[in-house]
Amino acid sequence: MLSQTVGYAIRALSYLARMKDRPVLVREISEATNIPNAFLAKIINTLGRKEFVVTQRGIRGGISLARKPESVTLCELCAALDDPLLKKRCILGMPDCSDKNGCPVHRFWKNHRKEEIEFLSKTTLADIATILDRQKRAQERKHKKNQ
Question: pTM of the prediction?
Fold first, then answer.
C-alpha cells in the first residue's frame, strides 16, 4: 500500500494533468481532491523542489506540471516522496529476513512488492487522469439521468 503522501500527490498531480497546463491554486486542488490544504501545500513544495511541478506567482499564478503527464510514472513519485514500498524491508519487521533466511511471508511479500513496483513503473499520471475523467463523466451522466 502506498503512503498517504504519495496517494495525495497522485491525486493532486492527476488533477493538474486534467487542467491541460492551466496554473491552479493549491486551494482549488485541495477542494477538488479533498486533500487537506496545509498538507497539500507541503507536498507541492516537495514536488516543486523535485521538479515535478512549477509554481507561478501573480494574478495568473498557480501550480502546473513541469513535465507531460505521459512521462511521469507513479513509481517516480514514490521515489521522490520516499515511499516505504520501494525500500527492501521485511513486512514483519524481522531484521534478518532475506532470500536465504526468510520470514514466514517473505516469498509472498517479495513477489507482491515486485508486482506493485512493476505496475507503478508502467502507470503514468496521464493514465490516472484518463480514468478519473471517465469516472467523472459517468457520475455526471448518472446524475443527469436521476434528475
Answer: 0.87
